[in-house]
Amino acid sequence: MKKKSYKVISLFSGAGGMDIGFINSGFEIIWANDFFKEAVESYKNNIGDHIVLGDITKIKSSEMPDDVDLVIGGFPCQGFSVANTKRSMKDERNFLYKEMLRVIKDKKPKFFVAENVKGILSMEHGKVIEMIKKDFESLGYNVDARLLNAAEYGVPQARERVVIIGNRLGLENPYPKATHWVDSKKYSSKKGLKKPITVEETIGFLSNVPLSYNPITLDNGMIIYNHMAATNVYDKFWGRKYNVNQHDICDYLKLWRDKSGYTTKKVDDHFGYKYTAGHWFRKDNNSGSIPKPSDWWELKKILGFDDKYDKEVTTMVEKEIKFEQSLRITNWDRPSDTITATSPEIHVNKERRLSARECAMLQTFPMDYRFEGSLNIVYRQIGNAVPVKLAEQISKGIYDALVEYEKKEGSN
User: Fold this and answer.
1) Are 72 and 22 in contact (CB under 8 A)?
2) What domain count does the chain have?
3) Phi and psi (nearest 5°) for 81?
4) Torsion, CA 341, CA 149, CA 204, CA 368, rounded to 10
5) Annotated catalytic, 77?
6) In terms of DSSP bridges, do strands 236-240 and 316-320 run parallel, antiparallel, or are they unpaired?
7) What is the pLDDT of residue 284?
8) Which of 113, 185, 248, 377 has the fewest other C-beta atoms within 10 Å?
9) Which residues is 29 bridged to in the sheet?
């Protein structure tokens, strides 16, 4: 008997990690959207042409199909992220969920699923998540928000994300039950739970496979795509030997600029920069800056200043990088830490960072999924995605709930 296909609109789809999970459970994505060009190209090439490239705020609900069972989406989270110490209710990106709200209001799906970062729970002391829940509830939905760890659902990655599920059928929202245990004290018993899937189990076989921007065919016939990686694994950089106060340098340079008769624009024109020189004459902690040594010596030629700060500004030494995450080596004997949209962790061989393919595998994308774009663009697509297997576990419960609901309605 053919499985019933429930129809889905996908918003903020990216490369389609969530969409693939829902497709795997029997759902049909009939319309999707994102404004990340390369992610849309990847989606089209791997999933389907039903994705539309464009700004959701400029796309009317009437341009989307009607009669949908589900709306899904991981609305942008930069403004909510705990990694963003300046996150604020004023950040416009925080309100993109209202586009999802608008589509749900207009299309009236039976269920919706939204995903976001852990930080959304604590933002404004919990007021943000309560505001979002109330907005969805005002449309007639029973709404829950739970923090799920992807590693508990068979993903080789300890990625914690908030999953918001709502339905207008009067049902309990069907969150998936954990299938794997993780390193925590939350379990009174591990009975019935599997061991977490480790990084080594997942990507270990690629350790000695040379990197390549082209597809690689292994001896067993498997084709590996996007096995390309950044190689910046050094723990040192060149930095100033002395502490220099940017405000002092700014006052000093402004004094000599005015003496010389140069304008900021004229300085920019001399260097061939656009707006860069302005930062040297701006005493602002957010945008003021100190010229690099080569620029300092050139400035000295045109402004004619004395030797007062030459030594402090231009003496450079090799320093160790102190930011731990940029030099973190990935786990090997347990699930990885969260795959991010920027520089991934260093491979255990310490010769390179995790390749794009390895990151995709830790996000449980299919092996034949080919990402489009430059290395950094591909890393971004992968890091922004919902792990496929987590989406699949979430969607299975919703699929079963819809089937059961229709059975009951049909028998009444």
Assistant:
1) yes
2) 2
3) -65, 140
4) -60
5) yes
6) antiparallel
7) 64
8) 185
9) 8
Q: Which amino acid does the sequence have at 41?
A: E
User: In this structure, are 190 and 240 located in the same domain?
Assistant: no
How many residues belong to the chain?
412
Give the tokens for residue 10. Answer: 């996908």
Q: Are residues 145 and 242 in the same domain?
A: no
Return the SS3 of 31.
Answer: strand
Measured CA to CA in angstroms, residue 294 lies from 85, 112, 291, 315 at distances of: 33, 56, 8, 11
pLDDT at 275 over 60: no
Q: Is the pLDDT of residue 81 over 50?
A: no
Whether the Cβ atoms of residue 356 and residue 371 lie closer than 8 Å to each other: yes
Interatomic CA distance for residues 246 and 221, integer angstroms: 58
Range of the domain at 112: 6-197+386-411
325 lies in some domain: no
The 10s digit of each residue's pLDDT in 227-260 is 999 887 776 667 788 988 888 999 999 999 999 9
pLDDT at residue 86 tops 60: no
The active-site residue out of 77, 162, 163, 253 is: 77
- Find the helix or strand (DSSP H, E) in which 72 lies: strand 70-73
Long-range CB pairs of 178-187 (<8 Å, 24+ gap) are: 178/152, 178/153, 179/152, 179/153, 179/154, 179/393, 180/151, 180/152, 180/153, 180/154, 181/152, 182/149, 182/151, 182/152, 182/158, 182/335, 183/334
Domain closes at, from 270, 301, 320: 320
Note the pLDDT tens digit of each residue in 25-40: 999 999 999 999 999 9
Contacts of residue 191, Cβ cutoff 8 Å, sequence gap at least 6? none
